[in-house]
Amino acid sequence: MKKTAVISIMSAAALLFTGCGAKSGVQRENDEDDVTLPEFAKAVANLSVISADYLTYYCVSALLKDPEKHTYDEAYTTSNKQDRTVIDAADKKDAAAVKELFRKTDDPELDRKINEFIGFIDGEIISTGKPFSGYNGFVRDEAGNIFREIGGIRENIQTDTGKTYYICFQSRYEPDKSPDTAVMTRLLIADKDGNGRYEINV
Q: Which of 159, 166, 94, 79 is nearest to 129 (CA)?
């Protein structure tokens, strides 16, 4: 019975894959009889096969009830804003601005971690490289919940003390929500010369 169920789920996923291709937010004519997103995500998450993540990444978007809520342009805009917020906050030593990006995090050590992140930078920022940010795709947390993820990296962050750093981040939001609801889950800063790094991972 269990084997039959697994095969049925994989067959359905394979059919969806054939129809949806590599792009997210596929518009469908009739959603009345569709499997719901939570049901499909849970089924795929429980599959003990190598292709589970592969199928999830490409097919779960075909089941979204409101695909127009997500576009790559929106994801790029939001990730770019978060990148700018991090750089400005690091330069101005503004811990509150960084904390707002982690706004739904209940980590009791978050304030300390953010202060250590900001304190990692030696000197004032005088220049940075261009931001590279955008939509990363679907991810799954330890509980099996599916999220969309955005992220970015900023290299060649130079300070007036001659130090050079890079910063990268990742943020997540629920699949049927807008990218501007994304909450940061990871923020890392590292010395370009390999003289240390600091990471907030929640």
A: 166
Tokens of 38: 């939570």
The two structure tokens encoding residue 161: 């003390």
What is the pTM assigned to this prediction? 0.66
| Burial of 18 (C-beta count, 10 Å sphere; 0-12/13-18/19+) | exposed
Secondary structure (DSSP) of 142-157: TT--EEEEEEEEEEEE
Gap between the Cα atoms of 46 and 188, Å rounded: 31
Residue 202, amino acid: V
* pLDDT tens digits, 84-102: 999 999 999 999 999 999 9
C-alpha span between 8 and 28 (Å, rounded): 21
| Residue 36 CB neighbours (<10 A) | 11
CA distances from 95 to 119, 152, 180 (A): 10, 19, 20
